[in-house]
Give the backbone structure.
Amino acid sequence: MNVLVLLAIVLCSLMILIGGTKGAKSFVSLFLNFGVILFIIFEMTDPKADPNLLAIIASTAISCINLFFINEVNSKTVTAFISTVITITLLLFMIYFITEKAMIQGFGEEEIDELVGTYSLYLGVDFVKIASAVIILSTVGAIIDVAISITSPMQEIYQQHPSISRKDLFHSGLTIGKDILGSNTNTLFFAFIGGYLALFLWFKDLSYSFGEIVNSKIFSAEMITIFCSGIGIALVIPITSWVNAFYLARRRAKKEKKEVSR
């Protein structure tokens, strides 16, 4: 049996065994997310397409899949979705500016050797926008995870203490976010660096100096992706806390108003 099929069966079995129906939905969502990414890749090859707009559309679709398909439509997923979209939109403007100034778009010299003479590099696409779109799509999963990790306990706090003020609820969200900020940032760091470990070994064999490694386009692009992902996680914490606190306080006010009118 093909190794990929075997691993997929093992993963599916474990997710269903441990997560039940939600685990099965999570497994299906992997293929749905892959389909979204594949569609966006084909669309980005069109010179008339805007990669940044496509990145926002893909992030929105991925957010819907990971939040509404897996966890169903409820107040927690709705506020997490709104927070994710706001964060991604704000992050995109910053990433586009950084990508343009850092000049990390396109191929590095380590990649050019394999492409020149075999493939044409005149693709007719904006590599600055492509680079910023890639960073956004690399970040969206972590942002969604943090958003739902904050909204869920915040709503639990609200249910246990219905009279809690919006300010205290907001600070509760910040406290929850502080606890997961470090672990999520480090998770992203090791995920990205681990994928490029072989490249670092290659740098060592080629006797690259520390300065050459730091100034390498591949290394710079990877570190910028890590930093932008960390910034996205840091931004989504106060945004999610505020949106969720505002929503819960408004829902409570409406409920009290209905009770008074009766």
User: Anything to note?
Assistant: The longest helix spans residues 217-261. The radius of gyration is 22 Å. The chain has nine helices and no strands. The CA atoms of residues 105 and 156 lie 44 Å apart.
